[in-house]
Amino acid sequence: MQFQTIIVIVIVAIAAFFMIRRFYNGIQKSSSSTCGCGCEGCAPSQKQNCTELEDKST
Amino acid sequence: MDAMIALAGNPNAGKTTLFNNLTGSRQHVGNYPGVTVEKKEGFYRYNGHRFNIVDLPGTYSLTAYSLEEVVARDFLIQERPGVVIDIVDASNLERNLYLTLQFMELGMPVCIALNMIDMADSRGITIDHEKLSRLLGVPVIPTIARSGKGREELTRAVVEILEKDTRNTEKRISYGADIDSALEEMAPIIEKARFLTDTYPVRWTALKYMEKDEQILEVGHNADASVSSRLEAIVARVADHIKQTLNSYPEAVIADQRYGYIKSILQQDVVTYGGDRNRLFISDKIDRVVVNRFAGPLLMLAVLFGLYQFTFTYSEVPVGWMEGLFGWLGGLVEAYMPEGLLKSMIISGVIDGVGGVLGFVPLIMFMFFGIAILEDSGYLARVAFMLDRVFHIFGLHGSSVMAFIVSGGIAGGCAVPGVMATRTLKSRKERIATLLTVPFMNCGAKLPVFALLVAAFFAEKEALMMFGITMVAWIGALLVAKFLRITVVKGAPTPFVMELPPYRLPTFKGLAIHTWERTWQYVKKAGTVILGISILLWAMMTFPGLPEESSRTFENERQTVLNELPIAVAQELQDSREGADLSDTARAAQARLYRIDSAEAEAALEHSIAGRIGTGLEVFSQWAGFDWRTNIALVGGFAAKEVIVATLGTAYSMGDVDPAQSQSLSQKLAGSPNWNPLVALSLIAFVMFYAPCFVSVICISREAGSWKWGLFSMAFNTVLAFLLATSVYQFGKLIGY
């Protein structure tokens, strides 16, 4: 098997894993999430609606 | 000290701005009410204290009339924050203090942020905040959330409240003899039965019964039906008495008394008005024209057309640069990478696929910049105000307008926040009708599809076409809403009152942040989701490849061409480089070889998994004029609408074997025999109305509380889109287009 073919198989597998996980998370978390949906998904992303810790002490 | 601080207040009072200012977050701030439909959390550290800041949705009261009010009230009651920072619009003190009173009645430790004090000053309104603080018994700090003025003082006041621990000091307001005596009668019943006392203050529960608060009545009935009935009987008796004596009802009397209490405070020289109090402010003067019954709609259409004209005119050159950049990248990989699958994936899947989507970044950026100006200035709220009447005709609520606009009412929004924005609707049926129709708006993901087709087939009238597409989307959505309201979600419309925020001059920083946030979201999505889908679709368009027998046939054809050539010409072809001058015979032979290569690539693509799906769908899609390549793109578009452009880019790249013909996707479409302006129009109609993207479907299901509605939107929208596209195509053919 050619080296290029092996790399392509790995990349396609990663893309498939990423998309399946995303689809699964979307469905799983759509009913339980307390945070909202963003244009890129409904997962309760900390960055989306629950903002990150920030030290603003003066 | 660790403490939870809630930010609460009326819509458009500046809660999210203060939240961003305190937490360093960049949550979206809009100059229209209802930006925050659910709570957001962030952290703020101050002199060793760590505060968990919660930004609550804007509400006018704490009675469960709308979802925002329920969210805000449930949070305050269940989480019991250490302090409620009540953000009060200094220019509308009387109305804003109505909510303040209710926090105090609930026994919440309140600190008032007298926000936008600069705007009040400019209107000639002077507020004696120290006196107001003394009279209300809570700290009142003047602030300007946008600039951060007063943040330090506000934080100090919060720390003082936390250190004093002023919980459970409920404010008692007199509601007149009838209601007061009824409340006194109800209190011992509640106390004796320990009726909801673990959750709510006694008098507050009685008051909510008096206000016929649906949520509390339900909770009370479930907790102890007998006590609940006794309380309801008292309320019924008082209501009857009030009806007979005052021709009113308890809720109205309670509201009147609260406003009376507020007025009595403000009249003690807390607020002074410079000049004529009744004079028209600048915003009011502008509104006399902008929301005028006749001039307003015309101006609105002109603004929309102007925005598209601006976007297409100024983005043309940078879009060309982006196309050039991706063309150059493709050429680079073509020249330096050895032949193979990886090269095909990088060129066709990534560069021509994702690059096709990223190529529209400048256009998206210009569009977002224009929308940010309209939004930050307060004009979008006027659009909602003007469309309210139209929406009622079609069975929708005034609050639906903002959901439509957010979804892409002006091309470039996103259906997901639009779906979320429907939470402001109280009527479930109006909400479902809105949820199902907001995806018809032209979101930022559909925009590149339209831009591509318009550039390919209607290049001379880009802005006009986009304007027309927007109008069709609105008209279609409203007609579907009417259809739904008289069929699956029948019901009477509910009234709507909208607050018009004052006009504000957008700041360059604000515009830049809004434009960047949305553009970055588009780029990020292209680099993650779209990239992933493009790679998978490339694989589906590549495998299983041509059967060996077919490959051999093409190879034989190639060999036949080469064998027919004189040796010198065959040698010339073998030695030739790209762009080199060839003899006429060699050039003719090369063209024949390219045709064979192209036919082979086409056959391989058609034989692939995606190709077979696309070809299978042609049974139906031919009625709408779509070929199998378009079908693959449309199937991919279920995942995300940007995928349509990416897939068309990949599909046309894989059939493209002549390196001398390096064209943009729009040029390829324009030159393809399967495409013409009628097919483009049919596809525009289909993309406008077919199933929402995957994320929107999840969000619709979640917001509607059932997968049934998500699946309904997929099936209904796709059937509708197909019927429309077929009608456009068949009618076009009929009239000889």
Per DSSP E runs of 2 or more residues, the count of β-strands of chain B stands at: 8
Which spans of chain A of ≥5 residues are poorly predicted at pLDDT below 50? 32-36, 43-58
Helix content of chain A: 40-55%
Helix content range of the residues of chain B, please? 55-70%
- The largest beta-sheet of chain B arranges its strands as 2-3-1-4-5-7
Q: Tally the helices of chain B: what do you get? A: 32
Q: What report would you give on this structure?
A:
The complex is a heterodimer of chains A (58) and B (737). Helix content of chain A is 48%, strand content 0%. Chain A has 58 residues and is an all-alpha fold. Chain B is mostly helical and 737 residues long. Chain B has a six-stranded mixed β-sheet with strand order 2-3-1-4-5-7, sandwiched between helices. In chain B, strands 6-8 form a two-stranded antiparallel sheet. In chain B, strand 2 (40-46) and strand 3 form a beta hairpin. In chain B, helix 19 (428-437) packs antiparallel against helix 21 (462-486). Mean pLDDT of chain B is 86; it is low at 31-35. The interface between A and B is large, with 36 and 47 residues.
